[in-house]
User: Which sequence fits this backbone?
């Protein structure tokens, strides 16, 4: 079983040069790189100011890439993994589903350290991710493009781009996606340095606890043969009946002290 850990915190400052210093990450020799970075920065700044920085990046990715959704997940070699920010509830569900099922473009992109571009989930997706691909399609997702977030040998996570239609990214879109990934890496590195949020900042939900809950939810789903929603409802009902916190119930499930198939006694 993988070990869950702490995640990232979001900030509500605008993404301007003064707030997001440039770093030498994924450097490009393309003369249009500066223009793309400036364009993506403008898109990020245009998003609602009340949202955290990583959420605004997700929304900017959707707009820049004509996508239906986007998600940023923190993943590290020591086992920390979970969605950190998403553009909308559907993207959040599809993003987290990869960690519940243990398969998907995000998982593969992180392991391979290179983009995974699934232009048609109904094609090769069913062979590569036999459980995730049909589940994502049930939520209307037809294509997924996953970009690892890394600096040299250090891996920070993955940015996923979802589309509700089949088809590859164009060359220009692929270059833009890589630029968004670069800015996401810079944002994550900045957030690591801001351990104490400033007044008025909105924090992203604790990645460690979210990932732990989703993993436990998946285990209950398999034990009972029910949907993810029903598994969570059972866990909440049990927590209420026992007057305990939901995260404590999730931890008992993960450590196999509590099962729903009668094998915990």
Assistant:
């Amino acid at each position: 079983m993988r070990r869950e850990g702490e995640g990232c915190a979001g900030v509500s400052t605008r993404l301007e040069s003064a707030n997001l210093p440039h770093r030498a990450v994924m450097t490009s020799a393309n003369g249009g790189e500066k223009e793309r970075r400036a364009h993506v920065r403008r898109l990020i700044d245009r998003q609602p100011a009340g949202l955290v920085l990583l959420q605004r990046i997700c929304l900017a990715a959707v707009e820049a890439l004509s996508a239906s959704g986007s998600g940023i997940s923190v993943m590290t070699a020591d086992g920390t993994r979970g969605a950190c920010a998403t553009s909308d509830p559907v993207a959040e569900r599809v993003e987290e589903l990869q960690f519940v099922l243990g398969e998907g473009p995000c998982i593969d992109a992180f392991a391979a350290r290179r983009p995974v571009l699934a232009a048609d989930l109904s094609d090769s997706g069913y062979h590569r991710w036999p459980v995730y691909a049909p589940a994502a399609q049930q939520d209307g997702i037809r294509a997924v493009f996953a970009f690892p977030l890394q600096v040299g040998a250090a891996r920070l996570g993955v940015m996923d781009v979802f589309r509700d239609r089949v088809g590859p990214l164009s060359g220009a879109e692929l270059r833009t996606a890589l630029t968004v990934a670069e800015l996401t890496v810079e944002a994550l590195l900045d957030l690591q340095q801001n351990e104490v949020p400033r007044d008025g900042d909105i924090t992203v939900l604790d990645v460690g606890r979210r990932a732990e809950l989703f993993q436990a939810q998946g285990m209950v789903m398999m034990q009972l043969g029910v949907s993810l929603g029903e598994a969570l409802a059972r866990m909440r009902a049990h927590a209420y009946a026992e007057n305990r916190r939901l995260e404590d119930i999730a931890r008992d499930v993960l450590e196999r002290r509590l099962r729903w198939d009668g094998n915990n006694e």
